[in-house]
Amino acid sequence: MNTDITALEKPQYPVVDRNPPFTKVVGNFSVLDYLRFSTITGVSVTVGYLSGIKPGIKGPSMVTGGLIGLMGGFMYAYQNSAGRLMGFFPNEGEVAASHQKRGGSFN
Questions:
Q1: Residue 91 lies in a domain
Q2: Is 36 helix (H, G, I), strand (E, B) or coil?
Q3: Is residue 8 part of a domain?
């Protein structure tokens, strides 16, 4: 079974890790990824609360909306982080960090 997701499209930026593991992707979350993650979660909690006012189920609706937002926000942050490592999104910081770790110079 072919699990190579880069087979259909070639990366436009330097590749740091062609197939990054879960821990590396989560460890590579940027401040912007965490901001997007928390914003999506917060908006989902608010929408869940507001949608539960009329039927009188504010609490359960808010929790459900929050869980959906939590999962969606995490997946969005994960997608962006993995995309930077695999070279599909701009990744100047990741490339510089990988060159520093290897001891190479980066111009």
A1: no
A2: helix
A3: no
**76 with 37: CB under 8 angstroms?**
yes
Q: Would you state the structure tokens that stand for residue 98, as one six-digit string?
A: 């990988």
pTM: 0.82
**Residue 106 confidence (pLDDT):** 47
Is residue 21 domain-resident?
A: no
Q: How many domains does the chain have?
A: 1
Block means of pLDDT (10 residues each) for the chain, 107 residues, are 62 91 95 97 96 92 96 97 93 82 56
Domain limits at 51? 30-82
Residue 40 lies in a domain: yes
Selection from 79, 68, 71, 60 nearest residue 44 by Cα: 68
